[in-house]
Backbone:
């Protein structure tokens, strides 16, 4: 599958900016400390980060793929409409940000439908791309991909083949495939970007990894992924990473670094990193790949 992954014309593949639109208290680092029952009473700040990200995309003249939380789309439909009106791609980031591998298939299906409907109602078009909360589709709940296909989703961006305490699957698939049976309407799964180094998959393209690594290192990683591995770099960020607001919640030193470290420099770093890269959306890239990808009949056949 190597050859078709390169961009048409033989150049290095483009890059993709993905954004998970949620409040800071939905992030799983905070979820353990902030009860879901208190969400309703909290001041919402996502619009701050969304507006900064919209301005950044406008400045760079790029379209991004925004995975929007249904809970937020219901309460702030204006945010969804602003993103859609600016010409971006709209995806679904669940309804209530559950840890997917802690759900039953019925719970997963119900939350996913509710999220898709909330986002679709807000902007007038039903999303066909999905990302689970915190990349929580792992080996033990690969069945979630089959639910997404049954629900009519065309693209999934929930697999992260790295070692991480709460998500990921370092032995899982790291190249795109289609969950069949049919190519035309199968679920096209695009695992998150990793750099292969000494048989290990390293993450660098978003969240705390991107905020904490120096720009020259990030650029070198991106060059190796695009040039050597012939794969696109899928970047991922959240509105709360661009918002200077500091939640008054004690996470402990490590989680605090993961959640807050490097936030102040992110806007400039992201602008400099993306300025020189060719960019596309997840949907456009996926549909370009679709004719060339391997078909997988059942999730039981996946590695991991
Ligand atoms: Zn999220």
Residues:
């Amino acid at each position: 599958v190597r050859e078709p992954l390169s961009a048409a014309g033989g150049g290095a593949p483009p890059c993709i900016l993905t954004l998970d639109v949620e409040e800071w208290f939905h992030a799983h680092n905070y979820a353990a400390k902030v009860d879901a029952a208190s969400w309703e009473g909290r001041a919402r700040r996502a619009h701050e980060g969304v507006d900064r990200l919209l301005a950044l995309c406008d400045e760079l003249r790029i379209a991004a793929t925004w995975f929007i939380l249904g809970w937020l789309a219901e309460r702030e439909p204006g945010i969804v409409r602003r993103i859609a009106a600016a010409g971006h791609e709209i995806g679904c980031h669940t309804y209530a940000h559950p840890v997917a591998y802690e759900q039953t298939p019925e719970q997963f299906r119900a939350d996913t439908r509710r999220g898709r409907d909330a986002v679709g109602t807000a902007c007038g078009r039903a999303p066909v791309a999905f990302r689970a909360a915190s990349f929580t589709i792992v080996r033990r709940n690969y069945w979630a991909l089959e639910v997404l296909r049954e629900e009519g989703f065309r693209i999934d961006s929930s697999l992260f083949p790295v070692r991480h305490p709460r998500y990921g699957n370092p032995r899982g698939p790291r190249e795109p495939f289609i969950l069949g049976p049919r190519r035309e309407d199968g679920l096209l799964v695009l695992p998150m970007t990793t750099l292969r180094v000494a048989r290990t998959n390293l993450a660098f393209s978003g969240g705390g990894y991107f905020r904490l690594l120096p720009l020259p290192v990030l650029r070198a990683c991106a060059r190796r992924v695009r040039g050597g591995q012939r794969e696109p770099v899928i970047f991922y960020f959240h509105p709360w990473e661009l918002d200077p607001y500091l939640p008054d919640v004690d996470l402990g030193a490590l989680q605090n670094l993961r959640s807050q470290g490097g936030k102040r420099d992110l806007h400039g770093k992201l602008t400099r990193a993306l300025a020189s890269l060719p960019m596309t959306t997840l949907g456009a890239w996926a549909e370009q790949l679709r004719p060339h990808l391997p078909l997988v009949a059942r999730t039981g056949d996946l590695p991991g």
User: Anything to note?
Assistant: The chain has twelve helices and twelve strands.
